[in-house]
Amino acid sequence: MLKINGLKAEINGKEILKGLNLEVKPGEVHAIMGPNGSGKSTLASVLAGREEYEVIDGDVDFDGQDLLDLSPEQRAGEGLFLAFQYPVEIPGVSNINFIKTAVNEVREYNGLPNLETKEFMKLLKEKQQLVELSGKLANRSVNEGFSGGEKKRNEIFQMAMLNPKLGILDETDSGLDIDALRIVANGVNELKTKDNAFVVVTHYQRLLDYIVPDFVHVLYDGRIVKTGTKELALELEEKGYDWIIDEFKETV
Amino acid sequence: MSTLTISDKERFLINQEGQDFSHEAKTFIKIRELALKNLKDLDFPTKKLENWKYTNLRGISKIEFRPQSAINIIAEKVKAHKIPNLDAYTLVFVNGFFSPEFSDTAEEKDGKFVVTNLNTAKRKFIKFVEPYLGFQTRAKDQFFVNLNSAFSQDGAFVYVKAQQKLDKPVHIINLVDGDLVAAYPRNLIVAEKLSEAQVVVSYETIDTASALSNVINEVFVAEGAHVQMDKIQNENKNTTHISADYAVQHKDSTFTINTIPANGKLIRNNLSILLDGTGCTANLNGAICLNGDIHVDNQTYVNHAQPNCDSNELYKAVVNDQAASIFNGKIYVNKIAQQTNAFQSNANILMSNDAKANSKPQLEIYADDVKCSHGCTIGQFDDEALFYLRARGIKESTAKKVLLEAFIGEVLDKIKIEAVRDYASALIAKNFNSKN
């Protein structure tokens, strides 16, 4: 589904990703871990199409399409979803209108008619329940005045509404208490099918107790330096990253 | 042999003459005479004046504008400028002259209020008109105000008696039809004690290659009264529009004016609000979305003359193409006006490299126990918000529209009448697209 090959990207002339390879197949959950500044969020941003990042080398294939050639909205239309690390507050745009516009634009992109109001409301209710998001938040401005947990649940809610092929969660667990974390993870688990996939970018092994990954990758200095199974995450929790970094430096 | 040279202004004033006002009561003729006298010492404002620094009248003093009544007004063309779904008493003026055939007046309806043209009111309701007309427009130094006072043909008269409420809004439609028209519509709105009125004033064009609309709205808000006024300026690109809006408020009254300058060549709004009693609230809002090369200059002056009054100003502008939006907001707090709350906010979004916005707050505060705040911003669309919307699959053009609606929507929400809000929203949405 997603095939990243030798990806190099920079921001303001500073190279952050230095030749990254990753392959994600349908039905898989990949966790990407790594110390601060290793390039985890850059990877998420480049995949979603944030314009500040410049791709200088490598390619990304998303279901047969050259992902890097697509605008952010086309990527979303193709079924890529980024749950933001810092969801943006948009005063004056109601959450419900926002998601309705998004759902219909993605449908239009895929040649589908707009959802009837009744169907939309049904879907909305169902997905709000999934992440235990209060109906009251629907009429509020997007993320404005939401608590940290509400913002992250709102991200998962949007993901549920758009039903993407590939969901990228950029440190969705940061700053969440246990209850919110459980709700967020539960949402992701409910959405998981054999046809979609998730890339979970995280600092903490904690999240992986709830969302069980098939693969754990360690990102360091813009490259994936180690790949393992969920046990690797536990090891990282216990021993930190230094041993991997040392291991990596020896091989270089 | 001697050569007689006259100035542009003198020639301009000669062109305005020829209207016969001799049938008017002496008290009203006096207003005209005083204005003519003031005009002797005045001239067209130039950019040298601080308040006209950003607005160049582009040589209008040399254009041969004249008052002229329109002939053969076609009903369909008038109807095209009604606001859809607005249930209102409609008064239509063409080139400043009243068009009774397109208007529905209400004279002393159930003894509660009068909605008619000013010339009728000057004859039939002189006791309601005389104490108010011209009361706020005596400024000796205002060229365009005196010009209107001297030459105004007619206008709307809305009078709501004490404790009464207008059962529906009044919609005053001002149209221009014909070339080189000088139109001087002048509206007088009086809300007596504890009364309530909603007035919508729109300025539109039937057809003109060149016109000057020089308008005045004079509003009196008595103790405890509520007046809301929505002003929509939607004239064609050949029209220069100069407007002076005055309101004086007495104790515990509320006055709201929402200005939507949408189309024209040049639009200048001078709002002047006098809070002359305790416990007043004045709301001044502007929803501005411009394209092409229109120049819009909003000047506000709020005079807190008495304690415990609130004033709130919210002006938001989105400027595209080569358009320019000026905002100059002055707040004056008298030394006895303690516990004043005065808020002013002006936010601008520039959509193109050639678009311009100028913002200037002016606070003059002589009381020591006041809360005054002002803020102005000039920027572009929030890139983070734009990316967030796009990352959810929303096209860039749609995303920008969504953000525009959110930005200006805050101001449009101040318009209470749904039909008017829809009309204003549609004008704004249309202007959001580049004309280039």
Can you put this structure into words, describing what you see?
The complex is a heterodimer of chains A (252) and B (436). Chain A contains eight helices and twelve strands. With 252 residues, chain A is α/β, with parallel strands linked by helices. Chain A has a single domain, classed as Rossmann fold, CATH 3.40.50.300. Chain A has a six-stranded mixed beta sheet with strand order 6-9-10-3-11-12, sandwiched between helices. Chain A has a four-stranded antiparallel beta sheet with strand order 2-1-4-5. A two-stranded antiparallel sheet of chain A has the order 7-8. In chain A, a hairpin with a 2-residue loop joins strand 11 (215-220) and strand 12 (223-228). The two termini of chain A are 30 Å apart. Chain B contains nine helices and 21 strands. The mean pLDDT of chain B is 95. With 436 residues, chain B is of the alpha/beta class. In chain B, 51% of the residues are buried. In chain B, strand 3 (106-109) and strand 4 form a beta hairpin. Chain B has one domain. In chain B, strands 3, 4, 5, 7, 8, 10, 12, 14, 16, 18 and 20 form an eleven-stranded mixed beta sheet that branches. Classes of the chains: A alpha/beta (252), B alpha/beta (436). Chains A and B meet through helix 2, strand 7, helix 3 and strand 8 of A and helix 7 and helix 8 of B.
